[in-house]
Specification:
It is built from eight helices and eight strands. It has helices spanning 3-31, 35-59, 71-77, 91-111, 113-122, 255-270, 301-316, 326-358; strands at 135-140, 147-155, 163-185, 193-216, 225-231, 236-245, 251-252, 279-282.
Length: 362
Amino acid sequence: MDNYSWSFLQGFLIGQLSVIIMICAFIKYFIFSDPSTDSSSSRSKRSNSSSRKLHKKKSTSVLRNPPPLTTATILSKTYYNVHSHQPESLDWFNVLIAQAIAQFRDDARTDGAILDSLNKVINGPNKPDFLDTIKITEISLGEDFPIFSNCRITPSLEEPGKLQAKMDVDLSDVITLGVETRLLLNYPKPLVAVLPVGLSVSILRFSGTLSISFIPSQENTSNSTTLTFSLLDDYRLELSVRSLVGSRSRLQDVPKIAQLIESRIHAWIDERVVEPKFQQIVLPSLWPRKRTTREHAPDTSTDSDSIDKGSNYRDGGVVGGGGVGAGAGEGSTRSGGSHRSNSMRQRRAPLMTAMHHDYPTP
């Protein structure tokens, strides 16, 4: 066998062997392979790639941090100059406050909630032993509303870097609370003497300067904002105190009693809302939520009005009114009624004829 034939035989055998190897590999890996192992390997590869992507995303923040805002920045962005801006009248604010107070007074009159609350407070466990059961004889929530005015924005002295709104408030009204009770003398033995007492305290005038600001809350961990308000120490409060002491020989409007009650009311206000003391209210979150969504009820007055107008037109057209043209209105109503009755007879005649042919009388 020469060299040419031997090389041909080698090439033929190598070619056939490579074809057999390719067929065996195709049968093994593409026909008889386990799909679970392939899918698990592909999933592991995808999970590894996604974890690498997540690690990359965690390193970069999606929410960009804005630069810190200062008082000067807020004032410049809102175009407010604390030195040259004119004080505001707050007429719109007075209307909103008046609506809220009017609703509060209406609720207090209807369900008697304020009477029950006051009875629980004044007859609570802190009532002195020398007082008998206190009975409320008069409650007047007033008829006027407070007027806020002269609002201006100033930097806060207590909280550096914060702003506060100062506004004047004035209320001229008669807000009255009247009570009756008995003073019990328990020495040297219980109930030695009993002295009836009647008191009536009325607020006639209140005026002062109210300071409002927003500061971060220090009492919780949610870092929520609180609304703080306080009064300047130059407020003015006018009271009217009427008293009646005794059962037979009564003492009316005792000056010492009036002075004692006025001093206690002033002390109560000074200890709670007069600077440097202040009251704070934690504000809720203002983000819209599904559970706080409401919808106004549909207004059906338009539909009822249209139904009433349609019934009026069907009953006889325009209702005759007083004034000029009343007679013409009546004449047109009569003529309109006659034309409609004739047209109704004309439309009703073919219908009665058809009914007569379809249903003959026996």
